[in-house]
Design brief:
Layout lengths: L6 H22 L2 H27 L1 E7 L1 H20 L7 H12 L5 E5 L5 E4 L10 H16 L4 H6 L2 E8 L4 E8 L4 E7 L2 H38 L14 H56 L6 H32 L8 E4 H18 L2 E7 L5 E4 L1 H18 L4 E10 L2 E9 L5 H5 L22 H11 L3 E7 L2 E9 L1
Parallel strand pairs: 8-10
Antiparallel strand pairs: 1-6, 2-3, 2-5, 4-5, 7-9, 10-11, 11-13, 12-13
Length: about 500
């Protein structure tokens, strides 16, 4: 059966619950607060256990205490003296004095005497027979018993068998002494034998053990963090420390994991850069050596006069010259890419219409496209698309993309150039039909010296830097460029802010 808690009770406990939640949240995020709380809990627990142990080990000594009995005799004497004084009784008023005495001691077995200043007994209780007392001895005995009682030495009272209370009495017409004596009644009292050593030991043991067990989990986690840091320092950058809680240790573990991830990425980046440098050297060596070998070979034939007629000489010269031109293009592309990649190019931005720039470039490339049996189609918006770019550098971007499309289109083929607006951006798509391209090739297509055609023949491809140069120029001007392949068509997409 579910018990419903009244709303008023929920409201009363709501502030306390919120405070508890707030404190718990603060404590869980701070090791300092956790230690303070643990210390407080351990201290309270040790004090509680220590008090229980102290009570268990404390002995009890029985003794007879006469303090209460002595006090009753003294109080009785004080009462009689005050009654006689306040009643303004005459020393000769025997009936009233005797009545006061009998009334005061009717329930007690005390002896009461009233004497004059010389010790002659004037009045006495029924259980007294004295007619004369020694004032000096009486006062002395009374003083000794009072002193012993005040210092807790009740053995003296027990030894004398009675207690004497001495009081001066003032009558209306005389002075005297009141002596009340009797056997004080004793009561059994149990005194504790204080032994603090067991309690102290219990407090110390409880505090240390509870503090150890409560903080044991946290200390183990510190060991886990330390072990993880040692493992990462050995070079195992894939190792990750598990995160527990939200305090500073959890934050430390998270930072160590982040550090390991960053180190891993940096090392992988450096390795990738080294591989890229190695590939760059290999590719540059190959692309430079191929035309250079041809030039050297034909010049060697000319030098050794290994030609039969002038037409063959002219053919050798033309081939060598053609190869030198390709070598020059490769060197220029390499030089330009290096400048752009190292931000060594200054931009001269202008507001230009992409429509006009693309139309001019397409018209210039018509002869080359016809020579390669490729048709170029345009699909532009009617309004002008104005962007702020460097005209020459942007022209180089689209020239590289269009030449790449013409070179790698299936023959006969077609290239489609699309220009439109989308929100605050101008978008250009250069599309052409081509052979199937794998996802791996698509991811590397902007890499320097990368060619989808693996033979690296200069007869079927360019320098391998055109797309890399185009990507760097676009990004240098704050634009974006990407590529996708779908159903036999590859599309390069360029975005510039209007």
């Amino acid at each position: 059966m579910k018990i419903r808690v009244p709303k008023i009770i929920k409201k009363l406990f709501s502030p306390g619950r919120k405070l508890y939640t707030l404190i718990l949240s603060k404590v869980s995020k701070s090791i300092r607060m956790e230690l303070v709380l643990v210390f407080g809990i351990c201290l309270l627990a040790s004090i509680l256990v220590g008090s229980i142990v102290s009570d268990s080990f404390q002995g009890r000594n029985a003794r007879i205490d006469y303090t209460t009995g002595v006090r009753r005799i003294s109080e009785q004497a004080s009462y009689i003296a005050n009654t006689l004084r306040e009643g303004k009784v005459s020393v000769n008023d025997k009936e009233k004095v005797q009545q006061t005495l009998q009334h005061s001691i009717q329930s007690e077995n005390f002896k009461v005497l009233i004497s004059d200043l010389d010790g002659k007994v004037l009045y006495k209780s029924a259980n007294s027979n004295e007619t004369q007392i020694d004032i000096y001895s009486t006062i002395k005995n009374a003083m000794e018993t009072v002193r012993d009682s005040e210092y807790g030495n009740n053995s003296a009272v027990y030894r004398n068998k009675e207690y004497v209370s001495f009081y001066p009495v003032n009558f209306t017409d005389a002075r005297g002494y009141l002596i009340v004596s009797g056997m004080p009644q004793g009561e059994i009292v149990y005194d504790k034998n204080n032994n603090n050593l067991p309690g102290t030991v219990a407090i110390l043991v409880t505090f240390l053990s509870s503090f150890y067990f409560i903080t044991n989990k946290k200390m183990k986690y510190i060991e886990v963090v330390s072990k993880g840091l040692l493992e990462i320092s050995k070079g195992n950058l894939d190792y990750r420390i598990k995160k527990y809680g939200n305090d500073e240790l959890a934050s430390l573990a998270n930072n160590i994991n982040f550090m390991a991830e960053e180190l891993k990425n940096k090392i992988e980046s450096e390795r990738k850069s080294e591989r890229a440098k190695s590939e760059l050297i290999t590719n540059v060596s190959h692309d430079l050596r191929t035309p250079l070998t041809s030039i050297k070979g034909y010049l060697s034939l000319i030098k050794d006069k290994k030609y039969s007629q002038d037409s063959q000489l002219e053919q050798y010269v033309n081939i060598a010259y053609s190869k030198s031109e390709k070598l020059e293009v490769l060197i220029n592309d390499l030089f330009e890419y290096t400048k752009i990649a190292n931000n060594g190019v200054s931009l001269e931005k202008q507001n230009i219409a992409l429509n006009g720039l693309l139309e001019q470039l397409i018209d210039e490339l018509v002869p080359i496209s016809e020579e390669n049996n490729v048709s170029i189609f345009k699909e532009f918006v009617e309004e002008k698309v104005i962007v702020s770019v460097d005209p020459n550098k942007t022209m180089r971007v689209f020239e590289n993309l269009l030449m790449n499309a013409i070179r790698y289109s299936l023959k006969p083929g077609k290239v489609k150039v699309v220009l439109y607006k989308e929100e605050q951006f101008a978008l250009v798509k250069v599309q052409n039909n081509c052979d199937n391209i794998t996802e791996e090739d698509l991811e590397k297509i902007f890499d320097r010296f990368y060619r989808v055609e693996k033979s690296r023949s200069t007869d079927t491809g360019g320098s391998g830097l055109g797309l890399a140069i185009a990507k760097n120029i676009v990004e240098l001007q704050g634009g974006e460029i990407d590529v996708n392949y779908n159903n036999g068509y590859i599309s390069f997409n360029i975005k510039f802010k209007l």
